[in-house]
Amino acid sequence: MNTTPAGSGILTSRFPDPQQLVPELGDVSTALFKITGNGAVPRSTITLVHLRAGQLVENTYLTVMHTSNARRAGVTEERIAAVASWKDAPYYSAAERIALELTEAVLTPSGRGERVPDDLYMRAAEHYDDKALATLAVAIGQVNFFIPLALIGKPLPGVSMAEQWQTSPAG
């Protein structure tokens, strides 16, 4: 974490609000949220995918934010806690499992060829129609889109968006 002003002990992000710096970000963000909220995939599944993505990129801000989002979507504490070990956890439906498997396949380099092989796609297609698969792809991409802002800007875990970003020093 950073402190500002120097030595004051006040925690801040690394740079000011990205949406203030690049206003077009709001349009992209709104479009992504509209897509993932289209109803093709349950909101709880989307939040599990986002939470797993935050864990995979080892980013506390994203993990804390998506844990909070999962709670708001009605995901139980057991399901939230077990996302990191979903493969042997009894809490997920077959459709949720395939969504989590797709998330890991896309975000984890395997070194063994194709990240999303045909058999994985075929198994996913057993649970999701074309619109839902496209929505899942966008949901994974949505987190991917924000990863650089989370890693470079280093927003503060658990801090509201309104209070999140460093303000420019008065001068």
- Structure summary, number of beta strands: 2
Mean pLDDT: 87
Question: For this entry, what is the oligomeric state of its chains?
Answer: single chain
What are the segments in which pLDDT stays under 50 over at least 5 consecutive residues?
A: 1-8
* Class by SSE composition: mainly alpha
Number of helices: 9
Radius of gyration: 18 Å
Cα shape: globular
The largest sheet has its strands arranged as 1-2
Task: State the end-to-end distance.
Answer: 24 Å
Strand content: under 5%
Sheet with the most strands, sense and barrel status: 2 strands, antiparallel
Query: Could you give the order of the helices and strands?
Result: EEHHHHHHHHH
How much helix, percentage-wise, in residues?
55-70%
Which helices and strands occur, and which strands form pairs?
Elements: E1 2-3, E2 11-12, H1 18-21, H2 24-36, H3 43-56, H4 60-72, H5 77-81, H6 94-107, H7 118-125, H8 130-153, H9 161-164
Antiparallel strand pairs: 1-2
Helix pairs in contact: 2-8, 3-4, 3-6, 3-8, 6-7, 6-8
